[in-house]
Amino acid sequence: MPDQSLPQARTPESAVRKPAADGGHGISRRALIGTAGATGLVLGAAGGAAGYAAAPAPATPLTSVGSERAMFHGKHQPGITEGLQARGHLVAFDLAAGAGRKEAAALLRRWSATAERLMAGEAAPHDDTDVARDAGPSALTITFGFGHSFFGRTGLEKQRPGALDPLPDFSSDQLDKARSDGDLWVQIGADDALVAFHALRAIQKDAGSAARVRWQMNGFNRTPGATARPMTARNLMGQIDGTRNPKPADADFDQRIFVPASGEPAWMANGSYAVVRRIRMLLDDWEKLSLTAQEAVIGRRKADGAPLSGGTETTPMDLDKADAKGEYVVPINAHARITRPDRNGGAAMLRRPFSFHDGIDADGTPDAGLLFVCWQADPLRGFVPVQRKLDRGDALSKYIRHESSGLFAVPGGAADGEYVGQRLLEG
Would residue 304 show up in a list of annotated catalytic residues for this protein? Predict the structure, then answer.
């Protein structure tokens, strides 16, 4: 869990804050709810998507959380540079037996059409479930990626990026293959749980006979507005998590996170690579540590995220500072020390994780932790060198366990009239 700060603002290219609009695709959920009381509209179980089309305008304004809208079309796909979202679903699919490039193209076309409508706060193109009928877009983002195996299944091996080569083995890995990898990957995020579930269900239904779910994971973060001001998130260990994340305003941000427009292969221009890891936190063991011991493991104060060398959360860490006994104030194996980009050849990645809690094991141990998602222009220069260094002596490794892993090529955003991955599948 590298010590890098999370972006707090939506970026103009992929997350313009706009109210939901019709956009020529039928009335939005927002418009329906705004007029339901005035028209006496009542929909039973058979109402379905027809009810959306029948509802008149105008719309009643939503709350600020419900009205936030991310844009589907753009230079980059949504769900990368936006701030953390309150609810997330990660799901991987494998193409069905006999399905190939033609079926994959049709599937990505369906998924893109559905994502565009749902992100605008509208009903799914067909067979809408009404789960999110009362809500606006709620900053919904839907992101699509391709796994290593996808290219063999579709006869596109020559288009497989070298950066998609399998990740090396790490000593801390205890990976469940059934919950790792996959031909296709979808990331869903929203600031409302029902909006996120609605999108998950629509994507799953759209898969039809072309693909089946390989694995699916659910995550969460703090809801926007739950704190007096925007703050770096806390993880389930109670630590402020993400203090040194690259920021879109950084001069080298695009260089570190996105494949250049002139990069190879050409279909990955303006895309990125996502490393996805399910990291179990051994919370019972962690919570037995004293506050002082927890802070020594991380290298930062738990209360405010400031480095143990002093200052505030954003104060540069003084790695040479020693106490009266001559001991480093920030321990040599502290997580924050090991993950610093200047201690890893400049390796950097944009972390955008979700916490998870999947119940209590029979022995009373919580199945909880971090759905780690990080973005980089090349995982061999981003995730891999940092994880190798963590493998060699991170104090935090005693309290976490990597249980699943995936690496996915996420192409650039779809232009108007395009679907995600069209340049690969039709190129």
Answer: no
